[in-house]
Each structure stands twice: as structure tokens, then as C-alpha cells.
Amino acid sequence: MSDSTNQTTTETGEKKGWWGRLAGGLKRTSSSIGNTLDSLLNKRPLDPAMLDEIEEALIRTDLGVEASMRVSDAIAKGRFKENPTANDVKAIIADEVAKVLEPVAKPLVVSGAKPFVILVVGVNGSGKTTTIGKLVSKLSADGRKVVLAAGDTFRAAAIDQLKIWGQRTGAKVIAREPGADSAGIAFDAIGAAKADNADVVIVDTAGRLQNRAELMGELEKMVRVMKKVDAAAPHAVLLVLDATVGQNALSQVEAFGKTAGVTGLVMTKLDGTARGGILVAIAQKFGLPIHFIGVGESVDDLSPFSPKDFGKALAGLE
């Protein structure tokens, strides 16, 4: 077998593996949709009452009212007189979900500033530090010189985790003892990056609940302090969302947006029991760029967001 054939086989295997994890992560949602469609369409032809039931089922998957109405309208227009099968309806769902998500599926563009400062925020357990590790691996592989700021000073484990990522990737890590002032660490990291002519600074932050005013105030302070070194910093603010939290993600986007000026989203844990419909509701309500989705723990499991793949997995199509 030639090297090119080997490479193609490997890439195909990786793609199938990634798709399998995405489809598996969204199984809870796709199964709910599939069961509803099977039970309805096997009993009677499609009618207005059934459309209402399909719409309600989609709303229950956290897809949101607007997107669910959009899907039911598309089903009515496209298939109403044809007695569609469950797969016909799934294809419409996948297509409409992709249409909602396509305008927000945007890569993270690291350019226009040196160092380019990325602030990473989110609630406890959303996967911020792991996401940073995957991101620094990608940037380092692209030849970018990266400085990491261990701003999650509440957790010694988070500081240690960043140091390990720094060792793996050759990134410099600016860290202090647990409990240290996180704004000061961010300030020092940007200064160190300027002195080293580094390309990117990634700032970790402590997980904080969006309804804790004092913790959100501390995040505001971090942003203010960064601007003392570079008035345009942070150049990107990534909110890491846990795909299993459902409707709570909407309030997270709103609160972190007001406090830190979120510029883009990363959705993690789509390999778990995900409630991925919420990503559609977030796209419809906020229109924020979705840069990456995470479907596992390895570096390659942080992938650019593909609306078509996501729509197919959500609808339960192969």
C-alpha cells in the first residue's frame, strides 16, 4: 500500500472516529427526535396537529422556539402533501439546523496584533483549561510562539495542568502561587510576551458562576488591567460552554458577554450526554461566532465547527 493510500485511510478513519463521537454525543437529542417522528408518522399522515407535536418535541430538545418553528414551517412547505417518512423529516431538520448555524461557524482568526491576547472564560467544569491546552497545541504546531497565563489561581490543579501543556508545547507559562491576583498574572504574561516577541497570549481564568457578582467583578478587573498593557486587549474572548447544561448556557452567554465582551464560543463535551440543541438556540439569539466544538479529550478532538455535520448528527442521520 502506498504512503498516499495509507494517509487517506488514516484520515478517513479519523473522520469516522470524530463523526462517531459527535453522533454519539448528540444521541440523546437525535433519539428523542427520532422516537417522536417514528411514533407520529407511523400512525397517520402528516397534518397540522402533527406539525405542532413535532415542533413541541424540537423545543424540548433545547433547539429554541424560533428554530423549532422554522423547522416545522420547512416541513409544511416541503413535504406536507407527500406523507414524508421519518428520514425525510430528519433531512429537513438537519438542513434547517445547518442554515441557522452556517452564519456563525467562523474560525478563530489570530492576526492583527502581536501579541494576540485570548482570554478564556466560563463556569466551573466547562473545560476551559483542557480547551486551552488543545488550542496552544494547534497554535504551536502552526509555528506560533505562545505564552500561557495561569489565571485560574483558585485551583492548584489548573496551574499544574497549564505547566504540563507548556512543557509539551514549548509555551512559556506565567504562574504564581494559588490564591494570587489573576489580573496581575495576566498583566505579567502580556508583558513577557512583548519582551519575548511572542505571537499569542492565552489567559486562563477561574471558573465562576454567572450569577456571582463578586467573581464577575474580578473578571472585569482582569480585562481593565490587560488594557493597561494593550488598549485593544483582549483581542478575543472565548466563552467555553459545556454541552450538557442545556438552557443554562443561554444565561451564561448573556452574563459573560456583558462582563467580558465575549467574541466567540467553544462548545465542549459533545462526546457526553449532550443537549446539543442549545447551540442552535444560542446561534439564533446571540449570533456569536462558534469557533470550535470538542468531542473528546485528545488534542485533535477540538475541531472547527461544521454546521452540516452538526445538523446531521443532531437529526440522527448517518
What would you say about this model in short?
By secondary structure, the chain is α/β, with parallel strands linked by helices.
Description:
- The protein has 318 residues and is α/β, with parallel strands linked by helices.
- The protein folds into 2 domains: 3-104, Four Helix Bundle (Hemerythrin (Met), subunit A); 116-305, Rossmann fold, CATH 3.40.50.300.
- Helices cover 55% and strands 12% of the residues.
- The chain has an 8-stranded mixed beta sheet with strand order 3-2-4-1-5-6-7-8, with helices on both faces.
- The longest helix is centred in the N-terminal third of the chain and has 23 residues, at 3-25.
- The two termini are 29 Å apart.
CATH class of the largest domain: Alpha Beta
Tell me, what's the shape? elongated
Decide which structural class fits the backbone.
Answer: alpha/beta
Task: Tell me the distance between the termini.
Answer: 29 Å
Query: Could you say how many structural domains there are in total?
Result: 2
Strand content is 5-15%
